[in-house]
Design goal:
The protein is an alpha+beta fold. Among the domains are: 93 residues, Beta-Lactamase; 108 residues, Beta-Lactamase (2-Layer Sandwich), CATH 3.30.450; 151 residues, Reverse transcriptase/Diguanylate cyclase domain (Alpha-Beta Plaits, 2-Layer Sandwich); 257 residues, EAL domain (TIM Barrel, Alpha-Beta Barrel). Helices cover 46% and strands 23% of the residues. It contains 27 helices and 34 strands. The strands form 7 sheets. Strands 24, 25, 26, 27, 28, 29, 30, 33 and 34 form a 9-stranded mixed β-sheet that branches. Strands 1, 2, 3, 4, 5 and 6 form a 6-stranded antiparallel β-sheet that branches. A 5-stranded antiparallel β-sheet has the order 8-7-11-10-9, with helices on both faces. Helix 1 packs antiparallel against helix 2, helix 1 runs antiparallel to helix 6 and helix 17 packs across helix 18.
């Protein structure tokens, strides 16, 4: 039989087995359900029988209690006069709730017609027949009559007792109402429809738990049916039966006959209540059965799916084998290498794929069958190591993996991965793969070069330069640290491509200037390092010659370009390692740029300045977040003296050095990056102070804070928004000030940030206008709200007249210039703020020219937040 037919037959067999299992589970499940049903019904019937027995015992206990009470009552009546009998009867009724009536009559009047009867309680229609009276037992027992209705309509059970008092026969007659004995005969499990009942032989319902609405009425069952049922129970002693309930639902019941009382008890329960008990028993088994059935279905389905997949595999087996054979040949022919097999003993090639032509420059046919060994194709210098490695792999029974060179038209590197196998003819072979990794080796060489060289210029990088210099420093030499002046101008003006070409050209000139044993490296963006062997030439002259030769004009992107180098240098005769030399040269370069020198040789005095600068930097780091830094606020007023806002000014009270000028620590903060933390502190504290003033009753129209150029970076608007959000402060009450000089350094980025701030609602002010570029070409499109006239313009608006009097008078030329600035700002829709207003002449002339807001010592000096509140609050 073919595999496909066998698969179909096995599928049919699988489903037949599944069908048989399912049918068996259904049969077993049915038997299980039926057995559980009968078990639940039997268990509940036994419980009903137990309850019926308890009802029987409770009823007999009730009668025993009544009998003992009647004996006590007889003794009481015998010991007292007849005028007290009614009270004794009342006391007996009070002690027994089930007693609803008691009376005493002379025995001669047992028919109940005598007027000499003494009774208490409800009226009870009773009639003692002559045979019943003659059958009365002695004094020790009670005689119970047939149940009869009371005056209230409820059924009662009469009883009689014969008494001899003072030589005269008396008849004690009482009546029991079982509905008053509910605590004794109560049913604790009535929630599930269970009923406890007492019936008389004439079919009257004497007691029901839970209580029926019409106690004493048989309901839907005829009176004769109840009487017959009682007779059936009393005569045959049957305890189990099924009856229709008063509500029409089928019920299962257990009953018994109480002979002394001529009553029978019935405990019943709806058959429908068994379903829940039955379900509690079977649900877990049904769940397991269902799970088993689902698992069985899933297993059969999975098996069927796998068989179907196997069927598809078998159908395409021949085609797949053929395609695989073709694919294998194609893969071997297109591998970046060759598949080969050689005899272990002789090393002769017995097979090699067609890729040999590209790898070795020889076809597979020319190599196989010609007795050529693989060793002959390996580079002469690598043959011994390959032979040793193969021998070790053979002895260790491990795979052979090795990188070596082969003989080809140029140097080629291959990775050999091979294993030794035993063929059926007993010959041992090495079968393996030779992969061409020449490109990978070349990449490794390039990566190694890039790890030690700058990718743009090809010069040593800092790490390689320092390592090479360390090897030469003991022999003495000259360390030079140089950078290109105003390199950022080239990048910004001509583009980064021009900047890159300039760096390459400078590096190439420096390389050509190196003497034997010299080193050159690109240390950073536009920074270069040189180490020259020690010679007799003057170091200053050597550095100057290098600068002169490098500074010859360049041609970059077809344009002539002239640059200059600033250098710091140091001799290794007086210093230790290369790292120390580089640090000292860097310090010399820093001071050369600070002084405007073309070159500077390091000397020890320079370190003191660096040390003080580092100390100040560390102190500034510690001051941030402490009470050393705080804000003062300079008011801005209109011409009527009304408060328009304040400008926040940062102060640093050093614990040892005293007050440190912002001109000293702000540039240091910008250089070290601490300006971001300082700016954050100023922004948060200024906004928080606005809220504190507002809580104190002072409404501050706006708060101006100064921004550094380094803060104008992408995302700064998010920082401002976060601070305003935290303080619940309107953005329109915040004003940021930026100087035109700093804005020009990154015009594109600065415009984007300022535009985003204005979209938030923050006001933007251009500070110190007129001090820097003051170009009208960009002033028209800057996102500004306020233009602040620089204090240098304001100070020139009045001049001192006379040599001694010191009388100030207007300077018309300066006034006209300030007037032009004010007119220009107003024409662009900007508010004008004049800074540095210190004299009355300045104030009056500015007011005449239409200036909007004034700031200066004439009006108010910078002051603390408390002083602002004291001066400008409503109560001031």
């Amino acid at each position: 039989m073919d595999p496909i037919s066998s698969h179909v037959n096995s599928t049919h067999s699988l489903w037949r087995i599944f069908g048989l299992n399912a049918a068996l589970m259904v049969v077993l499940g049915g038997l299980f359900l039926a057995s559980q049903w009968f078990d639940v019904r039997e268990q509940e019937m036994r419980r009903l029988e137990l309850l019926d027995t308890q009802l029987h015992i409770s009823t007999e206990q009730l009668i025993a209690n009544v009998s003992r009470e009647m004996m006590v009552l007889e003794r009481v009546l015998s010991s007292e006069g007849r005028e007290l009998w009614r009270g004794s009867l009342d006391s007996a009724l009070g002690r027994h709730p089930s007693l609803v009536s008691l009376m005493v009559v002379p025995f001669a009047d047992y028919r109940g017609s005598s007027l000499r009867q003494i009774g208490v309680g409800r009226s009870c229609s009773w009639q003692l027949t002559q045979p019943e009276a003659q059958a009365l037992p002695g004094r020790s027992s009670l005689l119970f009559g047939s149940a009869l209705p009371l005056a209230s309509g409820q059924p009662g059970l009469p009883f009689y007792r014969h008494m001899d008092i003072d030589g005269m026969s008396w008849l004690l007659i009482g009546c029991l109402d079982f509905s008053e004995s509910r605590s004794l005969l109560a049913n604790p499990n009535s929630d599930d429809g269970q009923r406890l009942r007492l019936f008389s032989t004439n079919g009257l319902l004497l007691f029901s738990s839970p209580q029926e609405h019409a106690l004493g009425v048989t309901g839907k069952l005829p009176l004769s049916s109840m009487a017959n049922m009682g007779k059936y129970i009393s005569e045959r002693g049957v305890r189990r039966y099924h009856v229709p309930g008063f509500d029409g639902r089928p019920r299962m019941a257990a009953g018994s006959f109480i002979a002394p009382l001529k009553l029978f008890s019935v405990v019943s329960q709806p058959i429908s209540s068994l379903w829940w008990l039955w379900w509690n028993r079977i649900w877990f088994g049904m769940l397991l059965g269902g799970i088993f059935l689902v698992v069985l279905v899933v297993m059969v389905a999975r098996a069927e799916r796998k068989r179907a997949e196997r069927h598809d595999e078998l159908e395409g087996a021949l085609e797949s084998m053929t395609a695989r054979s073709r694919t294998l040949v194609t893969l071997m022919d297109n591998l970046p290498g060759v598949v080969y097999r050689i005899e272990v003993n002789t090393g002769v090639l017995t097979f090699i794929s067609n890729g040999s032509a590209e790898l070795f420059g020889r076809s597979a046919e020319s190599l196989v069958g010609a007795g050529i060994t693989l060793t002959e194709l390996i580079h002469q210098e690598d043959r011994q190591s390959v032979s040793a490695a193969r021998h070790w792999a053979m002895c260790a029974q491990m795979r052979h993996e090795q990188v070596f060179r082969i003989i080809a038209d140029h140097e080629r590197w291959v990775l050999d991965r091979s294993v030794m196998i035993d063929s059926e003819d007993g010959v041992r072979y090495w079968e393996g793969l030779l992969l061409d990794i020449s490109a990978h080796k070349e990449s490794e060489r390039q990566l190694d070069f890039l790890a030690r060289h700058d990718a743009l210029t090809g010069l040593y990088n800092r790490k390689a330069f320092m390592a090479a210099a360390d090897e030469r420093v003991t022999a003495g030499g000259l360390m030079i640290y140089a950078d290109i002046d105003r390199f950022s101008t080239v990048n910004d003006g001509l583009g980064h491509e021009a900047g890159d070409q300039l760096l390459v050209a400078v590096g190439e000139r420096l390389r050509r200037l190196l003497p034997p044993g010299g080193l050159v490296a690109r240390l950073g963006a536009d920074e270069f390092g040189l180490y020259l062997p020690h010679g007799n030439d003057d170091p200053a002259q050597v550095v100057e010659e290098i600068q002169q030769k490098v500074e010859r004009p360049f041609t970059i992107l077809g344009r002539p370009l002239i640059i200059s180098l600033t250098a710091g240098y140091v001799l290794s005769e007086t210093n230790g390692d290369a790292q120390a030399l580089m640090l000292n040269a860097d310090v010399a370069l820093y001071h050369a740029k600070s002084r405007g020198d073309h070159a500077l040789c390091w000397e020890s005095s320079l370190d003191k300045h660096v040390a003080s600068r580092m100390t100040l930097e560390q102190d500034l780091r510690q001051a941030i977040g402490s009470e050393q830094l705080y804000l003062h606020y300079q008011p801005q007023l209109d011409s009527h003296g009304e408060l328009q806002g304040v400008e926040a000014l940062l102060r640093w009270q050093h614990p040892e050095l005293g007050m440190i000028s912002p001109a000293q620590f702000i540039p240091l903060a910008e250089e070290t990056g601490l300006i971001f933390r300082l700016g954050r502190f100023v922004l948060e504290e200024a906004c928080a102070q606005m809220v504190r003033w507002q809580d104190a009753g002072l409404h501050m129209p706006r708060m101006a804070v100064n921004l550094s150029a380094r803060q104008l970076t992408s995302g700064y608007e998010n920082e401002v928004f976060g601070v305003l959000e935290n303080q619940k402060l309107s953005p329109t009450r915040l004003e940021v000030e930026v100087t035109e000089t700093l804005l020009i350094q990154d015009m594109e980025g600065g415009l984007a940030v300022l535009g985003a701030l204005r979209e938030l609602g923050v006001r933007v002010a251009l500070d110190d206008f007129g001090q820097g570029y003051s170009s009208l070409s960009y002033l028209s499109f800057l996102p500004l709200d306020v233009l602040k006239v620089d204090r240098s313009f304001v100070m020139k608006m009045d001049a001192v007249a006379g040599s001694e009097g010191g009388i100030r008078c207007p300077n018309q030329q300066a006034i006209q210039l300030v007037g032009a600035v004010i007119s220009l700002g107003h024409s662009l829709g900007h508010e004008i703020v004049a800074e540095g207003v210190e004299t009355d002449v300045q104030f009056e002339e500015l007011k005449r020219l239409g200036c909007d807001t004034y700031q200066g010592y004439l009006l108010a000096r910078p002051m603390s937040a408390e002083a602002i509140l004291e001066r400008f609050s409503v109560n001031a």
